[in-house]
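User: I'm putting together notes for a lab meeting next week and I want to include a structural view of one of the chains we've been expressing. I don't have a solved structure, so I'd like a prediction I can at least talk through. The sequence is below, exactly as it appears in our construct file.
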Amino acid sequence: MAMDRILIIDDNPAIGEALSLLLELDGHSTLCCTTPEAALEALEQEEIALAIQDMNFSADTTSGEEGRALFHALRSKQPDLPVILLTAWTDLETAVELVKAGASDYLGKPWDDQKLRLTIQNLLELSRLRRQERARQYQQASQKHQLARFNLCGLQLHSAAMVSLLETATRVAPSDLPVLITGPNGAGKERIADILHANSSLRHQPFIKVNVGALPPDLMEAELFGVEAGAFTGATKSRMGRFEAADGGTLFLDELGNLPLSGQIKLLRVLQTGEFERLGSHQTRKVSVRVISATNADLPLAIQQGQFREDLYYRLNVVQLALPPLSERPEEILPLAEHFLDGKATLTEEARRALLAHPWPGNVRELENAIARAALLCQSGQISPDDLALQAPPPAPTRTPSELDAETITQTLARHGGVIARAARALGISRQQLYRRMEKLEMVR
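Assistant: Thanks for the context. Below is the predicted structure for the 445-residue chain, given as structure tokens.
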């Protein structure tokens, strides 16, 4: 734990030295200044926990005017700073005035060592308690503000899964740790990235998004790292890449699973060293970028198949936020529908039942599109099931349970966090069929 630093302000260096020796016995760090100007400069440059200041800085006066001015200057710069006043002249009127103005205590010279040490100990403890209370109040206010941000992003807190995920997101957002967001297409991964950046210490810095899956493989390196003029046919001028554009801020890499192995190697180098070269250049450039990535791909499986680098996976997957499909958070379907409608129309009871009965294979994006279409097409201002025009999803590929071996089941369960329902869906069989197959393979006892 860092030591509390105490600022001692006295025009007599011997007094400063004596106070330093006394306070260092209690484990405090001290900084001595002999003029008000030096003290105010130190307060701006150092983290000061408490100040002890003399009231008189001129030998020909006992008015305490210099000390009064210094005290008010200290309070102006740092209103919560505990200040102990020392003087060789007992001026009760000045003492009362400055205590009312916020001085913590007023001691005469020569001081009582034990009284001074106890006073400092009590003031520092009180200061710590006040900081803790302010931090608690700030956290409560931040949580309320964050809930507003969630709603602004269209993510309604109606399911335990999303509450847990968003709580984790706001806890890790202020750090610079890489975050990997996983989940199916259309589930809201980009909006989670928006929340991470909005709640980070880099929220006022660049936030650059790039859909890796939409970039042609032969242009991906140029897009990410930049290109010099003449590097290839058509490169008529130099251009910075997304990493340079995001320098000092955040880079969001969507559809990470589509990044080719050549791009993965260069991405790993940037994450490890912050260094890269533009395409067609030998000049090494350096950036500081926080990376948030997202994928709907099964990256552990891609690693087994040699399609994704394991070292890159662990570099990006410092914190993973697994976004569940909309079908696993049905509590959010109607609130999200109302959010997307934004008062343009109302849902009939039949339409509400149709929304709840639909499996939403396209997740939140499919719901948003369905609501936008229905609000545009409905004639009476009330949306019916016909206005929604929900189409049945194509049947999932089926597999015969007897074809499944223990290794396949174990790997699938591992990829889906041990959740039977998700594993069964991925295997194309029902939950009951998966249970029966596991019993037959003696995987369930």
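A couple of points you could mention at the meeting. The first strand starts at residue 5 and ends at 9. The two ends are 50 Å apart (CA to CA).

User: Perfect, that's what I needed.
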